[in-house]
Amino acid sequence: MAEENIQYEVKVIDAFKSYGGINVLNGININVPTCTIYGLLGPSGCGKSTLLECILGTKTLDFGCIDLKAKYLKDVGYMPQDLCLEGILTIKETFEYFGRIYKMSDQNIKTRIAELNEFLQFPDINSYIKEISGGQSKQVSLAVALIHDPKLIILDEPTVGIDVLLRQKIWVEFIKMTKQLKKTIIITTHYIEEANEANCIGLIRNGILVEEGSPQNIITKYRRNTLEEAFLSLCCSQETNEISKKKVYVQRKKKLNNTRLKSENNFDLYRIKALTKKYFRMCYRDLWFFFIVICLPMIQYNNFSISFGQNINGLSIAIKNDEVNYLDCRNFNVNGCIADENSNLTMSCVVVNYLVSLNRYKLIEVNDFEVGELSLNNPNYMAFLHFPKAYTRALAKYIDSHNDSDGESLAYARLTMDNFVFRNQIKTDVLNSINYVLKQTLIGCASNPKSISVPIKFKNLYGNEVKSLANSIVHLFIALSVFYISSITSGNIMISEKLEGSLRRSIFAGVNLPECVLSLFFISTIIQLIQIIVSCFILFGYYSNPVQITSGLFTYVLVLSFLGWVGYFIGIFIAIISKTQLTNIFLLTGVSLTQFILPGM
Ligand SMILES: Nc1ncnc2c1ncn2[C@@H]1O[C@H](COP(=O)(O)OP(=O)(O)OP(=O)(O)O)[C@@H](O)[C@H]1O
Predict the structure, then answer these.
(1) Three-state SS across 158-213?
(2) What totals of helices (H) and strands (E) does the chain contain, helices first?
(3) Residue 45: CB within 6 Å of ligand 1?
(4) Which of 47, 208, 223, 308 could tie 24 with a disulfide, CB 3.0–4.6 Å?
């Protein structure tokens, strides 16, 4: 065929690409004629995959030009070197997913699976990808590249790990595809013998195309019997004229316009549906994910309700009462006025009985002040209380003349330093008990008890029902759980998609990032709503924490949802900036911990 009559599917002109100043593609020119198989050969690291990705547009050239006949992503089928498929999906679901991304009808997908099965012979198509062998996953990956019957097929080492018989069968099929179905195939391979089947071969070394031509022409040119021998001879002559792989600075060339493959439309509901279905499967099939997102919070809500900030009870307080025997207080009644010289009131008993009536404390009498003081070294003791011998008398004198020269009206209380919550609770209860004593004193003396009350009236706008610490922070706990669960849901799905390469493969099939984010948003919002319902049911319904929602249930759920959505976007952002799974986990945990600490928890 005359040169001018040849139609080219792909033209790469003067392509340069470097990483860190080292040229991986060093001025490559290749021309791939339509309806042919073009084999790219070369040692590991010579730049074959980089060249393919530049042709596909997933990587950009630094200089040079790539001209593609195909204009749309759906016209090209790409099989990357790595699997880049979701192990958690079955073979059938994987085909359905990609088929739907390419907007194929269900019937069309079914027919295509049957056709591909005929020549690739998949294992049971209901097997999970993670459970099939390396060679079988390569077959599936190849089928995914062919599912939508593209015009241009780009395959990066498709036959690695596949047995010889099937390899031969695949090449026969490739030849049939180019001859009968007018497809163009670009293929990289390390098996030189199979490259014999290609119409044209390009040998790359150190980013330079050192030879290009049909297998027969190359064999003839190097006067050898086989292609392998021809390449060995070529490589040996190259060794002596080694192309430097050291820093090669690219000459400043004008960057030419490259053809970029486009998606047919930028925002497609059909693709969003396929993505949502895939994410849904990924969520409910991963049992650990399901456990962490749904079951673990339920356990935590339960643990929180049982253990956190409940009303305190059973705390031990050491007591030494010099005024009266502690046991004698049991039958004590406030009767009479302490101002009365003849009254035999012992107000220390009023304090003691008040504390006992709270059912929070276990009062344990000690005989010695020193022993009482030392009792706080025992972690079971939260306080030591001491009442002086003339406590009631001194108290009467203090009330009467505001004078207690001996300091006998002072009860002594030493509190634990170990536990902030317990200390404050005991402090409040002891102060309330003294307040109660004063009131009882005034009642006994027929005075108006209000005269001794603190002259302030507290009125709460809301929160009247809040009785315990757990009641007060239950909403904070729900809010933080919703935030955390949303961020780990979006963050973990996104990072696994990114690192396993399935995101890249989906993007190459036409999906764009906003579609991924929106589909994941649906899933995350559903999980969030389940979270809110379950948490409210456990914390308010089952454990009866008081609900006082002043702005209405809708606003409450909306505010929680907003928090979850913030968590969702933070998760996505962290997944985008994280380069490894570990960084992703550390960042997610760090941000969530900050959220726990900032509200003062
Ligand atoms: N993202 C990247 N950042 C830095 N260097 C890269 C990157 N991608 C590829 N390289 C480097 O570019 C060179 C060419 O890589 P490429 O994957 O194209 O080789 P290859 O010819 O396909 O090798 P193989 O046959 O082993 O797959 C390698 O040295 C590789 O380390």
Answers:
(1) CCCCCCHHHHHHHHHHHHHHHHCCCCEEEEECCCHHHHCCCCEEEEEECCEEEEEE
(2) 20, 13
(3) yes
(4) 47
CATH (one of 3.30.70, 1.10.357, 3.40.1710, 1.10.10) for 315-448:
3.40.1710
Q: What is the ipTM of this complex?
A: 0.96
Question: Is the CATH number of domain 3-242 3.10.20.580?
Answer: no
Instruction: Check if 50 has its Cβ closer than 6 Å to any atom of ligand 1.
Output: yes
- 17 CB less than 6 Å from ligand 1? no
State the Cα torsion 482-483-486-491 to the nearest 10°. Answer: -160
* Cβ(43) – ligand 1 distance below 6 Å: no
Tell me the residue length of the chain: 601
Tell me the C-alpha distance between 180 and 176, whole Å: 6
- The tens digit of pLDDT for each residue in 468-511 reads 777 878 888 888 889 999 999 999 999 999 999 999 999 999 99
Domain boundaries, the chain: 3-242, 272-306+467-597, 315-448
Tell how far CA 169 is from the center of its chain. Answer: 43
**pLDDT tens digit sequence for 311-352:** 777 889 999 988 888 778 877 766 677 777 767 778 888 888
Token pair for 165: 């018989």
Q: How many CB atoms lie within 10 A of CB 264?
A: 12
Determine the 3-state secondary structure of 141 from DSSP: helix
Which strands sit side by side in the sheet containing 412-415, from one edge to the other?
361-365, 315-321, 381-387, 412-415
- Check if 3-242 and 315-448 are the same fold: no
117 lines ligand 1 (CB under 6 A): no
Mutate to test the pocket of ligand 1, among 12, 46, 52 (most ligand atoms within 8 A of CB): 46
Q: Which atom of ligand 1 is nearest to the CA of 207?
A: 14
Q: How far is the CA of 180 from the centre of ligand 1 (A)?
A: 34
Tokens of 228: 């392998």
| CA distance to 74, 76, 449, per residue, from 71 (Å) | 9, 9, 91
